[in-house]
Specification:
The chain is α/β, with parallel strands linked by helices. It has helices spanning 3-10, 12-27, 31-38, 86-102, 123-136, 156-170, 194-210, 226-236, 260-270, 327-335, 343-346, 349-363, 369-394, 398-417, and strands spanning 42-51, 57-68, 74-81, 108-115, 146-150, 218-222, 241-247, 250-253, 280-282, 294-297, 316-318, 339-341. The strands form two sheets. A seven-stranded mixed sheet has the order 9-8-7-6-10-11-12, sandwiched between helices. The chain has two domains: 40-185, 3-Layer(aba) Sandwich (Rossmann fold), CATH 3.40.50.10860; 188-421, NAD(P)-binding Rossmann-like Domain (Rossmann fold, 3-Layer(aba) Sandwich), CATH 3.40.50.720. The chain contains 14 helices and twelve strands. Strand 1 and strand 2 (57-68) form a beta hairpin. The longest helix has 26 residues, at 369-394.
Length: 421
């Protein structure tokens, strides 16, 4: 593979466009309409000056991209990471458009981020950065415009600062401007486990298609943060064996299964899965190649590539992360007969419950967790059934089918609305 080709494989926005174009061929989509739907509607780059604890000033770079708002307000997380770049944010915003369309919630796609190392910042510095960033993007956000949420290295506290800053500017408490907030500030029950619960619901549907019993099935999970941690707990409750997990520090393996409850306690005490009693160290890069029935990549982009896809042993992949599999790896996994549940379907539990939170905030009436979980599972099951039926209809894989469903919905609304000129 040439350097240029390898670069394209790892550029997330190029990956999005490649998959979009593939789905557009099945739909015989007008090329001009396709260009409109691939192109982000708005991109904002802002300088975020921050007074540091030592009295000096630093200027961080922040982004907010609104990919598409044909169906409703932009929706998508904000990440704080040193690796944030504009193409990544564009791709994440575009995937959010597709994700919302797949599960049929009335949002478009948005995403934001600040280039920084949050671990090197104090709580006060994080708060000042968040508030300055919020003020800098004020003109394009709001409950009816663009509704941010937590993402990598952001959490409910960051969302509380975000909501408070926005509210101070508009002179009224506006809880619906963000989701993923603390319960007392209009957050939703069930939100923290939502993406992991969506992963489980998707896995249960996929296992039924593959005629696989989850009880006793071996599951490897890359990433043990909010998504991977909850997925491990919920999948283990179904009788599956979690045989390997990883985090940024490393990976561990036990083919007989890990005690997930004890592992959570270990991570809470040590801040890592590494060194967990009853496990052996594993090369983190090799986790996706572990002997297992189910693989859940729940960390970052581009972990299953043309280079290692041939070594994947799982029969089912459920993508808990955004963009963990490159387009070049898709064909290899297809040839191996792996059922891949794509990110824009499998990890849509988070945005689905974010939608529930937004609805609850707008009407000022809140649901109990049982209702949230029930409606989430129903949404995920319906979306899986629609994508699987589309895969059967077009005789294609689940990823292409998910894009067909999403692109068709967004294109249909766009055509009905017409082009303002």
């Amino acid at each position: 593979m040439s350097g240029a080709a390898a670069g394209a494989e790892h550029n997330p926005f190029e990956q999005f466009k490649k998959r979009f174009d593939n789905a557009a061929k099945y739909l015989k989509l007008d090329a001009g309409l396709g260009d409109i739907l691939k192109t982000p509607t708005r991109e904002l780059t802002v300088a975020v000056p921050v007074l540091m604890d030592d009295g000096t000033y630093r200027v961080f770079t922040g982004y907010r991209v609104q990919h598409n708002t044909a169906i409703g307000p932009a929706k998508g997380g904000i990440r704080y990471d040193s690796k944030v770049d504009i193409d990544e944010v564009r791709a994440l915003a575009a995937w959010m458009t597709m994700k919302c369309a797949v599960v049929n919630v009335p949002f478009g796609g948005g995403k934001g981020g600040i280039i920084c190392d949050p671990k090197a910042l104090s709580q006060g510095e994080l708060e000042r950065m968040t508030r300055r960033y919020t003020a800098a993007i004020m003109d394009i956000i709001g409950p009816d415009k663009d509704v941010p949420a937590p993402d990598v290295n952001t959490n409910e506290q960051v969302m509380a600062w975000f909501m408070d800053t926005y509210s101070m500017h508009v002179r009224q408490a506006t809880t619906a401007v963000v989701t993923g907030k603390p319960i007392g500030l209009g957050g939703s029950a069930g939100r923290s486990a939502a993406t992991g619960r969506g992963v489980l619901a998707t896995l249960e549907c996929a296992a039924a298609v593959k005629k696989m019993k989850l009880k006793g099935a071996k599951v490897a999970i890359q990433g043990f943060g909010n998504v991977g941690g909850w997925a491990a707990t919920l999948i283990a409750e179904q009788g599956a064996k979690i045989v390997a997990v990883s985090d940024i520090q490393g990976a561990i393996h036990n083919p007989q299964g890990l005690d997930v409850a004890k592992l959570h306690a270990h991570v809470k005490a040590t801040k890592s899965v590494v060194g967990f009693k009853g496990s052996k160290p594993l090369d983190a890069d090799k986790l996706v190649e572990v002997e297992c029935d189910v693989l859940v990549p729940a960390a970052t982009e581009n972990v299953i590539t043309a280079k290692n896809a041939k070594n994947v042993k799982a029969k089912i992949i459920v993508e808990g992360a955004n963009g963990p599999t490159t387009a070049d790896a898709d064909a290899i996994l297809d040839d191996k007969g792996v059922l891949v549940c794509p990110d824009i379907l499998a990890n849509a539990g988070g945005v689905t419950v974010s939608y529930f939170e937004w609805v609850q905030d707008r009407m000022g009436y809140f649901w109990d967790e049982e209702r949230v979980n029930k409606e989430l599972v129903q949404k995920m099951q319906k979306a899986f059934a629609e994508v699987h039926a589309t895969a059967e209809q077009y005789k294609t894989n689940m990823r292409t089918a998910a894009y067909i469903v999403a692109v068709d919905r967004v294109a249909s609304v766009t055509k009905k609305r017409g082009l303002y000129a």
